Amino acid sequence: MARGKRRSERCTRAALHSPGRPGVARREERLRFWELIAAGRSSEGAAVEIGVSQPVGTRWFREAGGMPPSHLSPSAGRPSGRYLSFEEREEIALMRARGCGVRHIALHLKRAPSTISRELGRNAATRNGSFEYRATTAQWHAECAARRPKVAKLASNEALRLYVQDRLAGQVTHPDGKAIKGPKVAWKGRRHGPRQARRWAIAWSPEQISRRLELDFPEDTTMRISHEAIYQALYIQGRGALKRELTACLRTGRALRVPHARSTGRGKSFISPEIMISERPAEAADRAVPGHWEGDLILGLNSSAIGTLVERTTRFTLLLHLPPMAGHGTDLRQKNGPALAGHGAEAVRDAIANSITELPSHLRRSLAWDQGAEMARHADLKILAGLPVYFCDPHSPWQRGTNENTNGLLRQYFPKGTDLSTHSPEDLEAVAVALNGRPRKTLGWKTPAEALDELMTRTQYAGVATTG
Question: What protein family is recorded (predicted)?
Fold first, then answer.
């Protein structure tokens, strides 16, 4: 075989199978796939929407470690105009089939004739022994030639790889050097359900490892690696540097990355758009109309909790006694059974209903709560107490600012790190009386109890006058 000839001209191989669908079509599908993932869709749902099978979508997601490859990310630009596009190759194939010459094709595409000549010689289809030009085959040849496989730094630098592995998965030891035996953690391809136990290891974070290298090896520039490269070595299949089992050493324990939109988009099944805080009556915002409440739980040791309800206009506070149920701390919790700690959905619903129904109906207009699972039975409150519940946006405590401020005051009586189940209903009532009897600057130095009594008296007098 003579040297210097084009690859297609010196090809003597037997007929090959078709390269299949052009890579550019698959690229468009993958672009759309990662756009849907970035919007919070699951890999299976995104695959179905773009018209590929669910296993294909799952494989794309897992091979990329849960994040789009750089050339498929939304911020990645289109291929440079320096190279022929798939559309141009289709034009070349059509014009070639009509018998057009190289210069005519070049003039039509506004390309140099040498570019068209090289394209016809390099990327022609040779599976039939001839040199027929097909756009799909030419695109496949071009993409294969454009690949630039690069060995990962952790795979080529053994000293660096050992340094990273030791600080991710090294044993925890006593000061005397004796190793501490920890729990055995089985690596899972994808973390399901509750957070799994972490590997009993030194477990520095990738960023800590990356920054520490500069201090431990100030003169050796080969001992440098970014924390992103460490994450990619852990998450992306085929990197061949670090074992994916080491993901159990990370703080999150994730075997795959989770797109930001997917994590923030996780909502509770009992929350719908019509009961979000944005749909709450506008009168609640200016505090002019009483009867709008804010609620939350303050938590203590041993899963103990106390419920708090604060009226927005008067700052009047109600405390909910949530004692632990029988068997808490001793018996195993029954699957899908009640929360033995005492602040499950049913317990919180009953406590709110028992407290709030003691007030007149015009003081039970709405209740704002965070998206905690303890409010899963919120619909029952509207039936039992006539109190509609509205939920705040995730990670937005300022939407319940009055309640957050009151909880801060309550920590004077119920400090953090203490068991709140030791307090009796009488204790909670005494604290509520003390808090409601404290003068407030925002109320013109009236107490919340005085402000509530004034409202109730005014409403009662208005009702009598109307009747008369």
Answer: Belongs to the transposase IS30 family.
120: tokens are: 């016809």
Query: Helix (H, G, I), strand (E, B), or coil: what is residue 430?
Result: helix
Dihedral-angle region of residue 113 (phi above 0 means left; psi in -120 to 50 means alpha; beta otherwise): alpha
User: Domain residues of the chain, as ranges?
Assistant: 23-146, 154-260, 273-464
pLDDT the model gives residue 392 = 92
- Cβ atoms of 240 and 220 within 8 Å: the answer is no
Residue range 273-464 in CATH 3.30.420.10: yes
311: helix, strand or coil:
strand
242-247 long-range contacts (CB < 8 A, ≥24 apart) are 242/154, 242/161, 242/164, 242/165, 242/168, 244/187, 245/187, 246/165, 246/168, 246/169, 246/199, 247/187
What token pair was written down for 175? Answer: 């000061």
CA angle 353, 355, 361 (to 5 degrees): 75
Please tell me what DSSP assigns to residue 468.
Answer: -
Q: What is the pLDDT of residue 335?
A: 67
Q: With 80 as the cut, is the pLDDT of residue 388 above it?
A: yes
Instruction: Report the helix count and the strand count for the chain, using DSSP H and E.
Output: 17, 5
Sign of CA dihedral 294, 295, 296, 297: positive
> 85: exposed, middle or buried (C-beta count within 10 Å: 0-12, 13-18, 19+)?
middle
What angle do helix axes 86-97 and 135-146 make, rounded to 10 degrees? 140
Are 391 and 370 in contact, with CB atoms under 8 Å apart? yes
pTM, 2 dp: 0.54
Q: What CA–CA distance (Å, rounded) separates 95 from 120? A: 12
222 by Cβ neighbours in 10 Å (0-12 / 13-18 / 19+) ranks as exposed
Helix H or strand E segment including 139: helix 135-146
DSSP calls for 372-386? -GGGTTHHHHHHHT-
- Nearest residue to 423 (alpha-carbon basis) of 315, 320, 310, 295: 320
Pair 128, 15: CB distance under 8 Å: yes
Task: Kindly report the backbone phi and psi dihedral angles of residue 173, in degrees, each rounded to the nearest multiple of 5, phi listed first.
Answer: -130, 155
- Spatial neighbors of 292 by CB under 8 A, at least 6 apart, are 280, 281, 283, 284, 311, 312, 313, 365, 366, 367, 368
Q: Which carries the bigger pLDDT value, residue 35 or residue 27? A: 35
